[in-house]
Amino acid sequence: MSVSHREANRGDRLLDILTDEDAGVRIVVSRLGAELVSLSRRDKRGEWIGFLVRDNDLTAPAKGWANHATVMGYYLHRLKDEQSIYRGRPIEGGSHGFLRHKIWRLSGSETQLSYRMAPPDFTELEYPLNVSLTLSYSIDGEGVRVTFSFRNHERELTAHVGFGLHPGFASTTFGSFAFEMPAGVYRRHLSPNNFLSGETEDVVHTGGDMPFAKEKLAGSYILELLDVPDRRFTYSDLPSGRSVVLDFAEVPYVTLWSDGGPFFCVEPCWGLTDHDTQRPFEDKEGIQMIPPGGELTRSFSMGARLKD
Question: How far apart are CA 145 and CA 147, in angstroms?
Fold first, then answer.
């Protein structure tokens, strides 16, 4: 078997490194936040080439976005004023939820990296129901597959969750990348000041380069894949020859964002940010529901390619 796992300590971080020598693919995951901090391919010279912004670099940047691929959940994007009401009970949390701030437990590492999160790993104020999550990273051909598997341990209550991943793909400069979107109908959810206004606009795209201005990415484009039969997207950084094919067959929403630095975020999302006029958590736009005793499993893949 060509897949191997090893642990490494770097400063105060414990890292898991999964390598497929035959495929020439390596991933590095930090147990803090279960964050993918490196996705790399071996080139013809035998060197590892990274695809994420600041790939495999855990030092803090002088300015700008400091993450690599943030795990979002049990809600994502933002709660209005960092608080909400869920089933009549208060919940609190900052941007993208509490998962990014937790030390996860490794539960499997032979052919994939699986991490576990369940009470009492989080408090009732963060999320009041007994719902567990197994997050898995597996090397899938030329890249990585990410799988979220939730289990609702409540016997009588339906559970509500929002989740996703926030990967930033490296570019030579902010303007050097291209992003190809498949043909279809996209619904843009407008979100001035990071919260949904309730306004939407439908965008009919014939396929090819994204129909959105790069200079407005800092405000985010939140897109619902309304009628997009083939949900494969391609990110390319033309000068470096790196590209990533994203298979979002199971993904209902995608957020596009950058702060103007040398990267571009393409975020698969199962749920949306709060409305500016906040709704109860269970009524959030796009919220995912898990019946009592039920499970919810969703995945997507990122195929990393190097130009010959």
Answer: 7
pLDDT at 1: 56
The amino acid at 88? G
Q: Is the dihedral of CA 184, 189, 192, 194 positive or negative?
A: negative
The per-residue pLDDT for 140 is 87
Positions of the chain with pLDDT under 50: none
Three-state DSSP at 135 gives: strand
The first and second tokens of residue 256, run together, are 């596009």
96 φ/ψ sector (left φ>0, alpha ψ -120 to 50, else beta) = left
Domains, the chain, ordered by start: 3-58+67-306 (2.70.98.10)
Write the pLDDT tens digit of every residue in 176-213: 999 999 999 999 999 998 999 999 999 999 999 999 99
Buried b (16+ CB within 10 A) or exposed e, 133-150: bbbbbbbbebbbbbbbbb
User: Which candidate, 128, 127, 140, 9, places its Cα nearest to that of 73?
Assistant: 127
> Who's near 308: CB < 8 A, 6+ residues apart?
44
Nearest to 232 by CA among 218, 248, 252, 221: 248
CA distances from 81 to 78, 84, 92 (A): 8, 8, 9
Q: What is the pLDDT of residue 248?
A: 98
Secondary structure (3-state) at 103: strand
**Pairs from 90-98 (Cβ < 8 Å, separation ≥ 24):** 90/125, 91/125, 91/126, 91/127, 91/128, 91/281, 92/125, 92/126, 93/126, 96/70, 96/71, 96/72, 96/166, 97/72, 97/73, 97/162, 97/163, 98/73, 98/74, 98/122, 98/126, 98/127
CA-based R_g, the chain, Å:
19
